[in-house]
Amino acid sequence: MNKETPETILVVDDTESNLDMILAILKDYDVIASTSGEDALATVREEPVDLVLLDILMPGTDGFEVCRRLKASPETRDIPIIFITAKNDEETIEAAYDLGGTDYVTKPFRPKELLARVKVQLNLQRVIRELDFLATRDSLTGIYNRRKFFEIAEQMYAGASDDLYALMVDIDHFKQVNDRHGHHAGDKTLKTITATIAGLLPEDALFGRMGGEEFAVLLKGTDRLKAAEVASLLRRKVAETLIDIGEVSPISCTISSGIAGKQEDIVSLDHLLRQADMALYMAKKGGRNKSIFRDT
Ligand SMILES: [Mg+2]
User: Fold this and answer.
1) For residue 99, which phi and psi values (nearest 5 degrees)?
2) CATH 3.30.70.270: which residues of the chain?
């Protein structure tokens, strides 16, 4: 998405002279050349690719088959594909679009046309990614919004044994921040605390804003002790964090959290989060600035 980094385009054609020509046209991009369908499929599995230029007629796995396989896999189905071929009969063009191809260029190519079509697809792809980012992030804090959190959490839950732990986290006395210092300070507090938490969580943890001053974390591949350690680390570090709200002195806040693990009696993700929520309620009731386990 960074404008500085050139996009990666995979070009697949069994004729080397075609590859050379396309490489020259796409000199400003990061291009990976491939001379067979099998090789192209292997490349896409290993490297992030923004666009595929795909010859249809190739020995072995032809372009249509490569397209079919890319579209069948969730990891690769959103990569746009521009077919390149000498065939320009209606059936071929129809099949190319039916299989999920986004565009079609006929050989011999006109360099400017090819480049223009490539640019259109890459721009579209960038816009889609930006929209996807906006649709999945909480606009204030930049972490996952509730909807995206649940979407990923359901997958994590389905794939986990009893090594999955949920933390419900809530900022203590957040209302007072807004009441005393105004909503700008409240926003700053939410941003600072989420940044602190995000910086402390393991890389594979899931972190989302549930609403207001409440957040949820899913930790995988962990156990009761480690989950408790994470909760306590977050609590300590948040309490130490000074929040600059544009007044003479910075403020600080504490958090409370409730922890629950995916044990045998937990029947769903909602159930797990409800258990963590109950523990959070106990932490609040018990005086705040605490993390408490939901014991079942
Ligand atoms: Mg060919």
Assistant:
1) -80, -5
2) 146-293
Q: For domain 146-293, give the fold.
A: Alpha-Beta Plaits (3.30.70)
pLDDT tens per residue, range 230-285? 999 999 999 999 999 998 899 999 999 999 999 878 999 999 999 999 999 999 99
Q: Which ranges constitute the DSSP H helices of the chain? A: 16-25, 37-46, 63-72, 90-98, 111-136, 146-159, 174-181, 183-200, 224-240, 269-285
Residue 202, Cβ neighbours under 10 Å: how many? Answer: 12
CA 95 to ligand 1 center in whole angstroms: 17
Q: Ligand 1 center to residue 88 CA distance, Å?
A: 14
Tell if the pTM clears 0.85, that is, is over it. Answer: no
Residue from 88, 81, 46 nearest 66 by CA: 81
Q: Identify which of 118, 141, 290 has the alpha carbon closest to the alpha carbon of residue 211.
A: 141
Active centre residues (catalytic)? 213
Interval between CA 108 and ligand 1 midpoint (Å) = 12
The CATH code that applies to domain 8-135 is 3.40.50.2300
Work out the widest C-alpha separation in the chain, in whole angstroms.
75
> Where does the chain hold its CATH 3.40.50.2300 domain(s)?
8-135
